[in-house]
Amino acid sequence: MTLPLSHPALSATDPELAALVGAEEQLQADTLRLIPSENYVSQAVLEASGTVLQNKYSEGYAGRRYYEGQQNIDQVERLATDRAKALFGADHANVQPYSGSPANLAVYLAFAEPGDTVMGMALPMGGHLTHGWGVSATGKWFRGVQYGVRHDTGLIDFDEVRDLALKERPKLIFCGGTAVPRTIDFAAFGEIAREAGAVLVADVAHIAGLIAGGAHPSPVPHADVVSTTTHKTLRGPRGAMLMSREEHAKAIDKAVFPGLQGGPHNQTTAAIAVALHEAAQPSFRDYAHAVVANARALAEALLARGFELVSGGTDNHLILMDLTPKDVPGKVAAKALDRAGIVVNYNTVPYDPRKPFDPSGVRIGTPSLTSRGLTAAHMPTVAEWIDRGVTAARTSDEDALAAIRAEVADLMGAFPAPGLPTD
């Protein structure tokens, strides 16, 4: 399916850039996007992202700006914060962070001093760079200690987490990550944080949409601070939010502005407000549960084809595969699958003997395909394509990859993606 031409002003002004945008639209339309941190936003979110709100500078917060002419901007930001609080049941929300990593940095600024001990899941075990990992500023400016998962189950051992927390007494404990396929026990983390005298930060960037849709437990009753991006499963623009208990509101707001950044991106704030409105609708609840159902069905189909999955499956949107038994490195498999029209990312697995840039695993997820309307009934076909693609990667069979790509494009044509031009 060839998409119609769009963006007439951009095409007239900068045809070279317009061609690249068009090529990306075509790529997103034709391929099966299985990267768990990607999704399709609605046309309404896209439109909000490109409004004249782009023209405004708005340092400060609603009612307390350093620029005049904020009559409309203040209402936009209040809409977003009020919707965030209502959707997640939080006391306080800040929608100004530019993205997830700056949002996490604001948490450090609010509650810790350089050199303090912080605790998070180790990056190779599924954590995030900003949870105190050594190559990140959070690991260079703070003393990071990490917990992991059990070698035999791929699950967090909370007795070990508690022992580590009581031994190290961190200022902050992060829970959540980027490759965690199982339900996060926020209550258990909350108990440990209280016993250790730490601030608990739940980083739900990957699962915020599942939480909003009731497909994953909420951290709000257990965590002092909740950090999240607004894209991924939440299907909003590339932005972030911090939510907290009321007692921490001033510290969080002061850390975001003026602590780390200047004026918020008002067009993004507007798009966040739209996404939060969409997430409050009954149809979004159906979508969130369908994401999980699709992931579980895909995991079962992959297990039936002999794939090894970290923790043996998934409770959420994400599946982490160890391709060691298939005798194919993750990077080789990911690049071959990309040629087959199946977009994934290579990823380390727990206790991976290979290097991060050439790991053993592949990370996949179901948010994007669910947004297109695919159901659990399609997941055996997706698993078959992945199986054939991994086999072709091992045997360097480019004809097989081309055949898969044609089949993928045919199915994608029957399920148009939200927000993309259509005939």
Tell me the β content. Answer: 5-15%
Q: How many E strands?
A: 15
In CATH, what is the homologous superfamily of the largest domain?
Answer: Type I PLP-dependent aspartate aminotransferase-like (Major domain)
The CATH architecture of the largest domain can be given as 3-Layer(aba) Sandwich
| Count of structural domains | 2
Low-confidence stretches: none
Question: What is this structure's SSE topology?
Answer:
Blueprint: H1 8-13, H2 15-30, E1 32-33, H3 43-49, E2 60-61, E3 64-65, H4 71-88, E4 92-94, H5 100-111, E5 117-121, H6 137-141, E6 143-147, H7 158-168, E7 172-175, H8 186-196, E8 199-203, H9 208-212, E9 225-229, E10 240-244, H10 249-260, H11 266-279, H12 282-304, E11 308-309, E12 318-322, H13 330-339, E13 342-343, E14 345-347, E15 361-365, H14 367-371, H15 379-395, H16 398-413
Parallel strand pairs: 1-13, 5-6, 5-7, 7-8, 8-9
Antiparallel strand pairs: 2-3, 4-10, 9-10, 11-12, 12-15, 14-15
Helix pairs in contact: 3-11, 4-11, 5-10, 7-8, 12-15, 13-15, 15-16
Binding site for (6S)-5,6,7,8-tetrahydrofolate: 123, 127-129, 246
Subunit structure: Homodimer.
Keywords: Amino-acid biosynthesis, Cytoplasm, One-carbon metabolism, Pyridoxal phosphate, Transferase
